[in-house]
Amino acid sequence: MMCLLLWRTAPTARRPAYGLVLFLACLVMFSAVKNGHADSPQPLKIVAFGTSLTARGGWQPALETGLSVCLQRPVKVESVAKSGETSLWALTQVDRVVAAQPDIILIELYANDATLHRFVSLAQSRKNIGEILDQLRQRLPQARIIVMAMNPFSGLRGLIRPFADSYVSAHQTEAEIRGLEFVDHRPNWERLTPDDLARAIPDGVHPLPDVASKIIAPELAKRIAGNNCGE
User: Fold this and answer.
1) Which of 181, 38, 36, 42 is nearest to 101 (CA)?
2) What start-end ranges are recorded for coiled-coil regions in this protein (predicted)?
3) Which one-letter DSSP state was computed for residue 188?
4) Residues 92 and 194 placed together within one structural domain of the fold
5) Which residues pair with 47 in a beta bridge?
6) Do 107 and 138 have their domain in common?
7) pLDDT band (50, 70, 90) for residue 217
8) pTM for this entry
9) Burial class (CB in 10 A: 0-12, 13-18, 19+), 181
10) Domain shared by 6 and 103, yes or no
11) 66 and 96 assigned to the same domain
């Protein structure tokens, strides 16, 4: 419509001279609109890869909003996550993460490995996360990969994970020896009083989404966009 208006308003005597230039300009405009570049930048795409702490986390919308404000661009967070699953399952899901072509990958895959009844040894868990990280680095070389430790566990859910800290340390080590980032959210949770922490994580493992949004999202926004973000 804009191209037609320009053509109609051009002086009649000069229309032949304007023709080629106008055609090329309109072609560029059409291409930009078709590809979504005309008015806004492409969204920053994030994939959150993990367990129920991601699948049921509820912190993703807050991260989208906070980062979008900081970066002044759209942000989209997708999840590849399933409750009750381990790093063995995650090995079968790498294709899904790669297919999303994310700019950033957030990974938490230790929580169910650490449960006694899943029978994923510490050595196996460390091997699995290493293979996952290697595949992602190879297949998504431009993506920023951030391995995470989430919230503390308590009650029965904590008792069945007596060596959870060792699993976190193993995943952290595998990230750091590859030069990847690691974010530990647990200190921010532990700043809550014992009563507030118990109310925030009533079943001992899954935080309430509104509290998770206030603790996890700002920390991630700060790590991704800089120290002035998320405050």
Assistant:
1) 42
2) none
3) H
4) yes
5) 78, 105
6) yes
7) very high
8) 0.82
9) middle
10) no
11) yes
